[in-house]
Amino acid sequence: MGLNDMFSDAFKRLNKIEQDVSYTTDASVSDPMNIRTSQIANTGNSGVNVYVGTITDTCPSMHAYRVSVPGAGIYVCGVCSFAGGDTRVSAGYSPGDQVIIINLAADQGIILAKMPDVAEYGSAEPRTWVGLSDSYKADALQKSYTTSSGDKVYSPSYTSGSPVNNTDVGEFIAGGIQGTQIFVDPYMAYMRSTDMTGVWAFVEDAMLRVGGHNYQHITAGSYSEQFNDNGEWISYTGYAANSWEPYGYYTKPSKVIKTEDTWYNSEEPSAFWEPENKELLPWYRYAEYKGYPGMQSYVFAAPESKNERTGKEMDMLGLSQVTQLADGFVGVSSAKGISLTKRSVFPAIQKLKSPDDPEGDTADNYDFEHSGFKHKGEPDYTATDTAKVMQSTMGVLDYSTYTSNYKSLYPFLYHSKDYAVVENSEIPVAPVNWSKCVQQLQSKQYADPPETYTRDIDGEEHKFYIAEAGFHLLPDGGVMIHDGYGAAITMSGGNITLTAPGDISIRPGRTADIWAGKDIILKSKKAVDVSSTESSVRIKAERNLEMLGGNCGSGAGVVIESKSHGDYDFAPGGDKVTTNGIVLKSENGVVAALGGTVYVNASKRGSGILLDSGNGTRPIYTASNIKQDYVKSRHDLVFGDVSNGRVYATQTSTRYESTFPGNISCNGTTTTKGSLYVDGYIMGGKHIATKQAESNPYVSPLKDKAATAFDTVVRDSVERITKDRPNEVKDTHSSNIKPSFYAAKKIGNADTIEQTEFSFRRDDELDLTDYRVYASFWQTVSPDAGTVWKEKQVKTYSGEGTYPYPGKKYTEDEDCFVIQPLKLYKNGIAVDRWEQNSPSEVYSEPEYAEPQSKKLEQYRITGA
Length: 864
Prior knowledge:
alpha+beta, 7-stranded antiparallel β-sheet, 5-stranded mixed beta barrel
């Protein structure tokens, strides 16, 4: 086919030349350039001429242009490279461009080049060429940015001061006037529109550079865009799990895809895995945002056609979110669960074949029910009726193993021709020895580090511990944290459990403040130690206070010891109380000592034993079968008032005599081996019989020495009974009993007895300033749940009420229970963020609600 024939079709597409134009040689209105005359003059001229003409019409798809040459006629032309084979360059000439042509016939030619615009390149007019011959370096490109002033936006210039790129080594260049170019030389090649947007390949360093001020990337299952959005940079990337998903939303219950085994039919194109509903909108399961919204990534559930709660069509549901904001905030959220685990080993995924390998997985063995989102037969991991909510935390290793060793590998396992996943049992590393730690802790304070294995990585030996630890946020809301030795913190079912095969230590630098809404249970297989280094230990029971020792039956008991001595002063209360020894007081009840044997022993350093019943006003009763008093020297029975030392009479018994202050009455026989001295009458209802009466039947008179001796005996006896013994008792009372028991601040003192009582610490002893009890999480989200805890006071002798920690001031007087109302989260969900096309006030001006302070009696518990 000749060149003339090749142009014929393009020529027919151009505007036809008017047939009725006058064939005069003079210029006319219809032919102001006298083109027709030139055409007639050149008819039959077979010579080759070079002309400068103006493009008046184009057919760029055919590389054909109509060129008007003053005085030479109108030519239909192609570009100079038109005949160069299948690859050619279309210059993209426009009407009005001046070009240099060679005529081939009377009305046909070839465009050699475009004439430069003298006004553009020969004057100081700003030009629009974009070049690279003196172009910006890569650093400068990265630092280019858009500036704005008011409503005007200014972009950086990429002209670089050169109308065309060149290296003078025989390069090929095709370019447009706005800066678009294709360039090839021995050292580099590129295709670009500006110095910042294009693809560059360099021989040196074998480097490839891809740049785009605004950028889009589209694949069968992903879409990415990065744009300068009015001075704000926004990056979005969406990823699909299956290639048909970008075609639209799931609309239940319609069928997702159709898989006709054909690529085209008479009605519409059809392919494997094509969406059933052609009207659905695109969506992506994974979405990543960067730029002015921060750094955020999401995983979405397949949208439903209608949300029953909101009533919205095609409602999206987020399943997970990872957020990083410019102020440093990092947030991670998931509707399913989060596991952070340290494992000894886990299987690697080995790629066997390329996705386009015909020997790999194909549509014949693909199972779309086994993808990264659709897990056919996945256990729901809900609790059974027996274990209830604790099952998820107790079985956390099953859950984490399922998610890491099966669920996350699901797609690769079912594409066995493309991928190989090794089993854990095939990895030459010993399993975790959980029991080793438990065995060691039976005899050691701390377990040894776990066993290790080594692996050569890049020529260096690296050591890895064979241990597993994890932080798990479980699907049912439970939380499980465990280490590699068996210790764990479990939060589930509204409870927190701390467990460890070894010790659990709680060591605050200040107060360990534990409030139990119901009970506090302390249980130990061995010892329980409760001690206070510098202050007091108090135990108060509203009802019974019970202690038991010796439950083993023998070899154990209860020891209550006090090493102190001194005075008593209970009046100040709290830690200011002065006391010593052991005081048992039950003002209205019984103090009972019940035992197989009751033994009371006063130490040699003490003042003895005093039994005082109501300061001498109440009786003392004893009941026994045999009563024995072991008295080493003397036994005194004092008639008097023990509280003030008054003595009316004493009855004294020693090893050698007994003295009685009053009459002696005897219903039986009175026997004495010695003499009977009587300073009064001897009277009897019958006879007085003696052995000497037989020889001397008369009563002998006392006279002389006998009378003197009798008087002395009687006088001495009366002196001992009426004076010596009472004075001795009084001296004992004043020197021993009173100062030890009845003086001020002694245990027998009436004021001390009244003041002796239990009392909590006073407010000034608690060292609390601005004390607050802040509502717990469950009290915040459910402020009206549970019942209030009303603390009961312990009154003192003065009528003042004392309270346990935090004392009277913060328990009864001051509003110290702080409740934090919620503004953004109510009734279990976040409140709406948008109102009338703008953020609602709670979001646009985010502030915490003003805390509410209430009396501590409003503190709520669930253990009523």
